[in-house]
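Please, structure for the following, as tokens.
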Amino acid sequence: MKKTIAQLLFLLIIATALGWYYGSPVGGALVGALLAIAWNLQKLYRLDRFMTHWDLNSLPEGDDAWSQIFSKAHYLRQRNLWHKRRYRSLLKEIRKSTDAMPDSAVLLNEYGEIQFCNAAAEKLIGIKSRQDRGQRINNFIRSPRFVQYLKSANQSQPIEIASPVIDDVLLSCQLLPYGGGQRLLLARDITDRQRLTKMRRDFVANASHELRTPLTVITGYLEGLVDDPSVPEAWGQPLLQMQMQSVRMNTIVNGLLELSQLETRGIAAATHEIDVCGLINSATESLQDESRLSPIKVDCASDVRLLGDSNEIDSVIVNLLSNALRHTPKDNDIRISWRRNDDGAVLQVADSGEGVPKQYLPRLTERFFRVDQGRGSTSGGVGLGLAIVKYIVGRHEGKLSIESELGKGTSVSCYFPAKRLVSAAASSD
């Protein structure tokens, strides 16, 4: 830069000196300035042509300011090309990895418009990555349930919808935040999983149904033999044990049948009003008479009624109380309550028994799961009660919550939404 300035100054000095020699120093300086401007304009023209065609042969030689500008422009272009090649290579790798995914992945902007999709999206949803960019996702997935999910504020849980392009294919769809207002739609084919679930459910239901009749016959004969005085005394204890096991088997079969029926049902109809307090009092009296163990304290702080299936809610109450009685020492309190809150109402059963370790809490609603696997078959339940409770609460659009602390007891709460409630006063009117 200093050299270029010195050259321009030298040109002006020479032009001014020549103008002075001919009697016009100002004219000479003006001519020199015009020559300097013309020289710089010629360099700008060459720079423009160089940046348009990137002809390396047109790079000027020397170490003046313009030569440095040309070299800097060339360096920046080479660095930009390197970054572009690296970006394209990275983009190709990302496309290859996403195309290898069996699940459909669609990137959406804040308006639900498609920005990017993988190969599986064309197969499962019918989106073509190049042609359909910028289209709204609900132009391809028109399911009312998906459209509502797309607008919902809570998208933490996936939804199941039919594939818009393949018959008899079920998709599990979930929207995930992707930064900058974008969302990533993941769609997975769960047809095989649903088919296996249905096969398992049908098998359990059919097997339980077929076992019911022979078990009833065996139980009947065992009851007769236990009460028969002509049976040898040595057979008394084995017959009692067989009778206890047959009763246990009947309980398991009945529980499996109830679960199978619950799995095939949808949301419970909100047409029947349930007097929850009445069911609580009835179940408490029945179980208290049978157990003669832990006292059950009832707290019906609300007379609000629940809309749903009375038999199912009665099953919830009986299962929760029976479970609490089995795990609560004699003379320790068990509390059952029905009360209204800001979001709806809650049915809660709390005991003061041995409690459950925290790591087992998520598994308590699994079928046949028992915290103490070494517990004898004559004590404890069969591990189906809480699974049944979970399904019933879900059918009534509620949610189940279990809290426990070792040595202090367990609390099971069933939360029901406000739309499932009706006041007793309104009901009587």
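DSSP finds eleven helices and 13 strands in the chain. The mean pLDDT is 82.
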